[in-house]
Amino acid sequence: QASLRANFATRPAATTLMAYKPGAGISKDALERLRARKQADAGIADVPAEDNNQQWDRLLGEGAKKKLRCGICTRPLSEQEQLDKGLVCAACTANAAAAGATSALPVVATALASEEFGADVFYYCSRFARSARARPAKHAGVAEAVVAEEGDSGKASPSKASSSRPLIVGDCCANISRGAPIHQSCNVRAGRIPIGVLSFNLLADCYIRVEGQPWNAFAFCEDSLLDWEQRLPLIIETLQSSAADIICLQEVMVEERCPPGKKKEEWTWPAWIDKLEGYTCVLQDFTQKEWEKTAQRNERVVGKRVPTGLATLYRTPRFEECAGAKHGSGSGITLFLRCRDAAADGDAGGGAAAGALELAVGNLHLLGDPSRAAEHLKSLSSLKKNMGKSAARLACGDFNNECGAGSEVAEWFVQEGFVEAPTGTSWAEPGKAQRLDHIFFSGRLRVEAASGPLTDAEVASGLPCVSCPSDHAPIAALLSGEAPRSRGPW
Length: 490
What we know:
Number of helices: 12
Shape: elongated
Largest sheet: 7 strands, mixed
Mean pLDDT: 79
Distance between the termini: 54 Å
Strand content: 15-25%
Number of strands: 19
Radius of gyration: 29 Å
């Protein structure tokens, strides 16, 4: 015992820490020590830092360092940007400064760098926070937007405070001029894959001025504006000049002809679609007996033996089908496409070995009777089933519905996590315009640009008119996608 006392007596005195007392909380001294350590570790002066764990060494080799990236666009920061201790790159900082006081991003990228958890807060706010903004004048015909919040999965969930349809509208949403190449509307930032989408109801010739159907009398139109032979060249020009990657067509008049490589006539897509260079066409997959039945029905009702349906086209150099298409009379066409391109900077989202971008594309034409909302929801439920568990989903077409606040169709898309591209009005009779055509999307997709509303002249005259060959104007959107990142071996 004497020797033990001597040993304890010769040891240096240990630092006395206050014992934890239940109910008393953490002492102020302990809190200050914790805060000091966090502030010391939260800086970015020591990044990129060397990671010494064995798993990291096995993957990337000994001495590998993490790559410091922009908190907004994920582009690797330059050496000067790292020396300046910036959290975002110079390009994103310049965009934020140009946006002014209304921007959702702080102009000074290092404003929070010295604060506790400052870097984490900045990254979170710059990535997820969106501010409600006034709609630009070019989209004045669109209803008020609702802010959508994106989670890590990329799936948007609209704010519960409002039941309006979800629209992503902001300063970054450029305008797409009708007839102009969609991809030229704006530059998609590095690391994302651009996707040009166009939807167009062609107004089938067999549904014009049918006896006993006053809704298609088009009394305000001259005969020449309704003549199919005069409308078709403008339709082809509009589609070809858009250079869209994905084209969804409604009211396509199916032709009975002998397709290339076939020896017998059959119902197939019209021959004029073959004039669109660089596209693969997928027509609704009905049997010849079903097409013939539809043709006979139209002959009885509208006086012309021609069936109509949906057709989806995709640009072959950029996309390929990665699974069999699914079809339905109510749910339309669902294609499963894989993009052949890499991301704009060759890094497909910044991961090491990223996969190809895949998406499910639904082409719809809902019934024109608003009182049949139950059938609309049934068609949408069938579309959901056809799309399965696709990470990126796109649904567009003629909804015959403005999808305004409180409508059952809009609520369905809200609940399924879709957001809508802010396209403008697309249908008009003299003095009245409506948004009946829509482009919805979900998953890791983002809207970069969208087509605007009808011109004052088109609303005044009604559609069709000299500038628009159908009673529906084509709508377009430039989306950008992020390829999925492959998982590590752990």
